[in-house]
Amino acid sequence: MIRWLLLLLGGLLLGGIVHLVTMMMAPRTATQDAYARLALNAPVNTMTQIAAPQPGDAILTFMDPAFALAVCRYDLSDGSLKFSVPVSQAYTSVTFYTRQDIAYYAINDRAAGRRVIELDLMTPEQRAQLPEDEDVTAADRLIVESPTETGLIAVRALAPEPGLMPMARASLEAARCQRAD
Fold first, then answer.
1. Residue 19 has pLDDT above 50, yes or no
2. Cβ neighbours, 10 Å, residue 99
3. Mind giving me the DSSP string for 44-85?
4. How many Cα atoms are found within 13 Å in the side-chain-facing hemisphere of 39?
5. 3-state helix, strand, coil in the chain (%, to 5)
6. What pLDDT score was predicted for residue 25?
7. Considering only CA atoms, which of 108, 92, 110, 112 is closest in space to residue 156?
């Protein structure tokens, strides 16, 4: 009897380990992640609006139909990016993701406290090369450090009612994601 319990316990333990390893490796081995799916529609370092999700035909998973969505696939290998988006009347959020779909920074219109969310996106190496300037403070210049050279910026604007979706899309049309010169 004890032999069967030990075999059962060993099997459950081995199955649990295999399950955990598989679940942790799946996102890293997936070939059709968000970055790859957006490669067809969104050029690098350019803001691109994503069409409203249709049943069975959404470009990204878990898209909320109450939000207008724009994305920027970025590549920081040639230099840092300047990002700006005017806030919509209802709610605007900006989320930064690594190439492996890990969110590393997020800000919304209420946290920004301004009518336009503006920031510089760069790698830690590019940040280290910035000259020390006493006149520029953290309040004047928001700098976000990306842990990877490539990734995604997702901008969402809320349309509280279906009739306000054009207003939300218009605020995203003014969003910019371009190389800093």
1. yes
2. 19
3. BTSEEEEPPP-TT--SSTT--TTEEEEEEEEE-TT--EEEEE
4. 10
5. 30, 30, 40
6. 81
7. 92
Residue type, 168: A
What pLDDT was estimated at residue 135?
A: 46
Structure tokens at 154: 């997702």
Answer whether residue 8 shows pLDDT above 80.
yes
Torsion from C-alpha of 83, 180, 130, 70, nearest 10 degrees: 20
Determine the Cα–Cα distance for residues 32 and 52; give it in Å rounded to an integer. Answer: 20
pLDDT the model gives residue 7: 93
Distance of alpha carbon 99 from alpha carbon 176, whole angstroms: 20
Residue 181 tokens, joined: 């010169």
Per residue in 20-45, pLDDT tens? Answer: 998 888 767 766 777 777 777 888 88
CATH number listed for the domain at residues 34-179: 2.60.40.1610
